[in-house]
Amino acid sequence: MRLLLGLMWLLHWLPLPILGRLGAVVGSLLFVTVRSRRRITLINLRLCMPELTEQQRQHIALKHFQGYARAILERSVLWWASEARLRRLIIIEPCVPLEQIQAGPTILLCPHFVCLDVAGVAVLLESPLCSIYTRQQNKVFDEALRKGRSRFRPIKLFSRAEGIKPVLRAMREKLPFFMLPDMDFGAKDAEFVPFFGTPAATLTAPARIAASTGAKVIPVIATFLPNYRGWKVTFYPAWENYPGDDMIAATRKMNAFIEDRIRETPNEYFWTHKRFKTRPTGKESVYANVGKPPITSHPASL
């Protein structure tokens, strides 16, 4: 792992266009070789975008693998590049909402697009924050990841096992909560809410935390800029009258917002995750055949 981290450190010296193209090549190789994740991606795309042809979904899947690998390699820039270089490469629209953050509890809602680490850095260049964190199995990588994410401003990282109380305390200290709301963590604390029309176990925590703290919910999405020029981080207006009295309706609103953003840049959403792993009672797994040989060979032209 130390050797791999040393290689990543060397990569951060490369110009971003070279590093990004290298990532795209690696992603293309992964698309061909990591069959189980490719099949998960295509299952998700068939469920979420049935209006597309299979060739169009294959194309999005390939581009997703390229973008995901690219984002991993470009993480070296986020961890080791100078602040001046990062400020040149990260375009923020319209700006980090510091006044709103400082005015009271804030949830920065960041769905799983491949560049989400860039959104975290954009905030940390201006403000400390808190977030929930999954400890990495490799201690060396875990330490590097934590250092890379906290080198500009303090960041309080809490494990999911600690529950929500540490987050609420940090929010009372005016730390924005950088929240990743759209993964399947099982049925606990979740409701089956449509995601592109398919019931998906969706955390109601964003709505519940906003209701209990009076927090503003400000979505933030990070995407690639064209031609390997860097990244764009977009802060959207705080949702008005959110969550209201109906937590499920509020969660539906969140999923609908994420769907709209995915349609804008479908290649960059985290399709390799088993988003529909948890199923309503009586419904069979949509991933039952993952890991088995594909019925048809994938087109070599992609």
Question: What keyword list fits this structure?
Answer:
7-stranded mixed β-sheet, 11 helices, 16% strand, globular
Main beta-sheet annotation: 7 strands, mixed
Instruction: Report the span from N to C terminus.
Output: 32 Å
Mean pLDDT: 93
Low-confidence stretches: 293-302
Radius of gyration, taken over Cα atoms and rounded to an integer in Å: 19 Å
Side by side, the strands of the main sheet go 1-9-8-2-5-3-4
| Helix content bin | 40-55%
Structure summary, number of beta strands:
9
- Report the β-strand fraction as a percent range: 15-25%
Count of domain modules = 1
Class from helix and strand fractions: alpha/beta
In DSSP terms (H or I, runs of 4 or more residues), the helix count works out at 11
One letter per element, helices H and strands E, the order comes to HHHHHEHEHEHEHEEEHEEH
Description:
There is one protein chain. With 302 residues, this protein is of the alpha/beta class. The protein has one domain. It contains eleven helices and nine strands. It has helices at residues 2-11, 16-33, 35-48, 54-80, 83-89, 98-103, 116-124, 139-149, 165-172, 205-213, 247-264; strands at residues 90-93, 106-109, 129-133, 155-159, 177-179, 190-195, 198-203, 216-224, 231-235. It has a seven-stranded mixed sheet, with helices on both faces. Helix 1 (2-11) crosses helix 4, helix 2 (16-33) crosses helix 4 (54-80) and helix 3 (35-48) crosses helix 4 (54-80). The longest helix is centred in the N-terminal third of the chain and has 27 residues, at 54-80. The protein is globular, with a radius of gyration of 19 Å. The chain starts with a helix and ends in a 38-residue tail after the last helix.
